[in-house]
Amino acid sequence: MGAVVTAFPTPVAEAAVRSAAAADSVKRDTLPDIASLFDTLPPVAADRADTAAVADSVATGRDTLPAVLGERKRRGSTLSERVTFKQRDSLVYDVRSGNLNMYGNGRVEYTDLKVEAEHIKLNLDEKNVAAWGYVDTLSEKYVRPKFSQSDTDYELDSVRYNIDTKKALIWGGYTREGEGIISGGLVKKMPDDVLHMKGGRYTTCDAECPHFYLQMTKGTVEPKKKVVFGPAYMVVEDVPIYLLGVPFGFFPQQGARHSGFIIPSVGEEVVKGFFLRDGGFYFVFNDYVDLKLTGGIYTLGSWQAGAASSYRRRYKFNGNFQFDFAKDIFGEKGSADYVNQQNMQIRWTHQQDPKFRPNSTFSASVNYSTSKYNRYNATNMNDYLSSQTSSSIAYSKNWVGKPFSFSMNASHSQNMRDSSMSLTLPTFVFNVTRINPFKRKNVMGKERWYEKIAFTFQTNFSNSVSNFKQDEFMKRDMFERMRFGFQHQLPVNASFNVLKYLNVTPGFNYTERWYFRKIYQDWNPETERVENTDTTHGFYRVYNYAASLSANTRLYGMYELGRKGKIKLRHVMTPSVSFSYAPNFGKERYGYYRTIQSDKHGGTTTYSPFANEMYGVPGNGESMSLGFSIGNTLEMKVPSARDTSGFRKIKILEAFNISSGYNFLADSLKLSVFSVTARTTLFKGVSLNINASFDPYMVDETGRRINRYVAAHGKGLARLTSFNTGFSYGFSSKARRTTGGSSGPAASNNPDNSTLSDVNAAMNDPNRNGGFFNQTENQYAAAMRRAQLLATQYYDFNIPWSFSFNYSFSFSRPGNRITRSQTVSFNGSVNLTEKWAVEFGAGYDFEMKKLTPGTVLIRRDMHCFQATLSWVPIGFRQSWTFSLRAKSALLSDFIKYKKSNSFIDNYYTY
Fold first, then answer.
1. Which residues make beta-bridge pairs with 834?
2. Which of 60, 412, 589, 737 has most Cβ atoms within 10 angstroms of its Cβ?
3. Quick check: pTM over 0.85?
4. C-alpha 604, offset from chain centre
């Protein structure tokens, strides 16, 4: 058994036991002579007295008996703490030199110092510790000693350490600093744990023989802070590449935020030239606020600058602010495509902790930019494809124990294609929640009918302007087009239960608007058109009221099928009907409408001076309408041994709803269009949604609706005017088991990653992008977005294969013209081996009978590198991208190679 000996800091006796079986298996000629190095540093001053006593012990096999220590007086300084050491094999003490040799898994501990090695030499007089490993005779590999201090671990070939000065000489050291691995060379360790190296290596590859490393001639390591090195060059697969040398450099290692320079990225764009961008300086002012200043220059004249700041107060609020400015110059001066513009963008987000001021909240999400900023300065496809931006700043407050609440909002929206904007500055809303004015404070007995009467109240103020151009922002024309006003709403209603199963709700609604101008119109005989003639300012009340009555109930149907009725069906039907009435507020006594001449033949038209105001104007004419709808759900229960209840529930129809209406006072086309919605689950993970509309009236040759029922002409009950449906699904094989998990985002080949399905859905939507082939720019952007997004996303090689698809169909026939859209898109991935993977994606437009732009990606996992080839073989813009970069985030921007067709370059050079 091994011996454990404790050496106390006070003068102690020393004993030694030498094992007959102690044999040094280390090939000593492969390492420096550690014993000879003890004379290279001046020893700690101490006088050794003669040996007073020695106690013998017997060593048998690999066991070492505890030493009986004698006493030996010393002069000079002593250790402040005890030194504990142990070994598996033998303990040998040299009386003359004072060296204590431990063989076989030796271990020495002193305060925060710990040394583990096959052979350790300890001298308490000089306070030196030396250690080296051995060569395993089976694997013929050198087993390194382990050295740790101040929460930093080292593996090394050999080491000499002075306990008193805390200095060390290390040969062939190996340690980790963040993602980096530092190894090799001669290292001098200082008392503050700073390492001075000569001939070391720096890499992020954890292979026994690194596939690449940075060969440093000299360097300094400050643990958990930084690595600074002098002249260095890259070595790939043991081949030095001197062209990739650098005169000096550093790698930050701090986990916490700290101020420092931001290294710019280097690249080339055909239209702007070579560039250095996104470089600058990062400031950390305190734990709450930071600031990042960046800039970039292009060889063809363009430049950019930006500032970004983050702020955070724990348990209170946090946010980010960003401002970017760009001077965009490209193209030949004097040519049609020459561009010389100034563009900018502002982004601000602010969030408040829910626990901070729980009765009031403040939030902001601002995203404003000039219309051409993303087009000329986008560095990713998400920004480049963005056609709409919006902003919102909101504040809300409620009063505890009171039925009052208040909110304020300012918003902005912008169309990047035509530079049109809309602003709301601001909107105020004051709410009074539901109040039962006739409810007794002390309820006794049954609730009376009038106690169910309740009302709410809401006041709105809004000031907005819409559809103005970006160059009109904050100018007189913008302010003249602003609309503002107040609106007050007072709904009163009650709910009664009639005949036990029928819910009846009568209601009355009063609305009043406050406006501050009237815009008059008249016929101009000179221009022969109606024009605005005068605008008067003042205070104008515009009110209206209406009454309503609604009723609904729920019907249940139960059916039993199969033998002994084991299969059960439940059908739930929810019919509802509503009636509303509003008087004619177009009468002259209200003053809401005027009748004027509309053409040179004396024709007339009716308009409202308040038609363009914020909250509109009451309807012109009496209104009395009936609305009706039927909702349905259908479920089935089947026997199941897996369920504890003995049955498994299956939803056949999650929803099947039909709704329409009837206007009693309309002169024609009284019956409204029928809307039908249905939703069901085909199988796990796949839901089918259907939306359709049916018009009960026919149309004439021009496609205009006429007052003739379709059913009266023997053409069915109604005419289908629109139909939309679609579904998507993804599946994959089971991932291989790994030793660790990942909490990051889903990989690009994982069906749970919604990026591709969102992109495909957006690109396939004909209402947003005109379909695949109607807009060639969008077609190209979709292909390039797939290529470049996938080329930069993380790929999970543990998923052997995956596949997903998206299908959509739409039909529209409002008149006689029919439009259809039917597309299917798919993407998948296959891991050919553990290192090779192929991804693919494409689609087909059934109406155009063409393949939609597809992408093929080939990936190679190279342990510490990942290579990606992205190829768009067909479509409006064929392209390819090849990239090779280090996996480590620390070196991914330094060790990389990329060759591609920039999507902006292709757009302008096609």
1. none
2. 412
3. no
4. 58
